[in-house]
Amino acid sequence: MILDLSTQVHPPTAVYFDSKLPVISYLGTQYRQRVGDFLDLGRDQWLSLNGALGGSHRLVDFGSQVPAPVPPITHTRSSGSQLDGFLDPSDFVIAGDFMNQGWDQLFLLNSDNNAAVGQVTIGDIRSPQYATLYWGSGNSYFGWKDSDDRQVAGDFLNLGYDQVLFLNGSPGASGSRAMIDDYSSGTRVTRLLYTPQPSNDILGGWLEGEDQVFAGDFFGLGYDQTMFINRADIGLDASSQGRVMIIDHSVGGGIGAVLYWDYLGDNVELDSWLSSPLKNVDPTSHLDLAVRRNGAWPSADDVTSS
After folding, report:
1. Contact assessment for residue 174 and residue 153, using Cβ atoms and an 8 Å cutoff
2. What distances in angstroms separate CA 132 from CA 187, 199, 203, one per listed residue?
3. Is residue 233 very low, low, confident or very high in pLDDT (cuts 50, 70, 90)?
4. What is the pLDDT of residues 153-212, one digit of tens each?
5. What is the spatial order of strands in the sheet that 73-77 belongs to?
6. Cα 31 to Cα 13, 104, 128, distances in angstroms
7. Under a CB-based contact definition with an 8 Å cutoff, are residues 37 and 75 in contact?
8. Parallel, antiparallel, or unpaired for β 131-136 and 120-124?
9. In terms of DSSP bridges, do strands 212-216 and 225-229 run parallel, antiparallel, or are they unpaired?
10. Cα(89)–Cα(26) distance, integer angstroms
11. Can you tell me the distance from the alpha carbon of 124 to that of 101, in angstroms, rounded to the nearest whole number?
12. How do residues 236-265 score in pLDDT, each as one tens digit?
């Protein structure tokens, strides 16, 4: 199902729904899904990558459903042996316009710490056969692709195309916390930001377990910032604990400038939505907020309504 949220009304409009959609067969444990304008159509497609060696990938375009819902167009893609070793469960895959082409490519980071094998590949999947646009090896990514590390695509430095932000979840005493790489030349990596872990580490506690990181232009600046969400369920009384933070990496030196900070408990609406899974509520009851108290769901008398 695809929902249109642009009208800002409740409930949102389902612009596509099909219980017999053929892509259901591409949702197995060996598949990974990403979204982007891989076909240069001016709209996003849905990609399912098969991690099995020799497996084909599926690219689904839902754009043909407007104005009348019709079956989406499915494209088959093959990478041959080019992605062998890049689609293991511990590897990293993100989408973005890393090569400044005006459409999205795939960025794959190999979790295998073997300098003799490929570490990064960026590919074009517009054609049936995967086309490699960048290939990198060596050890420059060792320590940046552990299970608690993050890789995020966005135009963080206002260049007009995407860069890759690497965030180190466990940098150690002498390690580094963040770096931004530019791959647009196609032949080499330009490291535009590299931040050692400072004594007053602003990212401490924001890259653990279920914490989340998102890229987007949250302030309408024309380029992307990074949103950090602290998912730690440590109680609403921890007033010193940050819950949401947004950083602009293009200004301020070092890792950038903090544009937004929300302490745990400052905004109970965020606290209730960012804790453990929400219960279902009756959409006709106009309940705007459900506040968790003492780790338990409230009774009807405890729920704030409008």
Report:
1. no
2. 12, 40, 34
3. low
4. 999 999 999 999 999 988 765 468 899 999 999 988 898 988 876 666 788 888 888 889
5. 31-36, 45-50, 57-61, 73-77
6. 28, 19, 18
7. no
8. antiparallel
9. antiparallel
10. 16
11. 10
12. 445 557 889 999 999 877 889 999 988 776
Q: Which two tokens stand for residue 204?
A: 């401490």
Q: How far apart are the first and last CA of the chain?
A: 29
Q: How many residues make up the chain in this entry? A: 306
Mapping DSSP onto H, E and C, the string for the chain reads: CEEECCCCCCCCEEEECCCCCHHHHHCCCCEEEEEECCCCCCCCEEEEEECCCCCCEEEEECHHHCCCCCCCEEEEEECCCCCCCCCCCCCEEEEECCCCCCCCEEEEECCCCCCCCCCEEEEECCCCECEEEEEECCCCCCCCCCCCCEEEEECCCCCCCCEEEEECCCCCCCCEEEEEEECCCCCCCEEEEEEECCCCCCCCCCCCCCCEEEEECCCCCCCCEEEEECCCCCCCCCCCCEEEEEEECCCCCCCCEEEEEEECCCCHHHHHHCCCCCCCCCCCCCCCECCCECCECCCHHHCECC
CA atoms lying within 13 Å on the CB side of residue 305: 13
Residue 204 is which amino acid?
G
107-139 b/e with 16+ CB inside 10 Å = b? Answer: bbbbbeeeeeebbbbbbbbbeeebeebbebeee
Rounded distance between C-alpha atoms, residue 198 and residue 244, angstroms: 20
Tokens of 189: 């990596």
Which residue's entry shows tokens 């730690």?
232
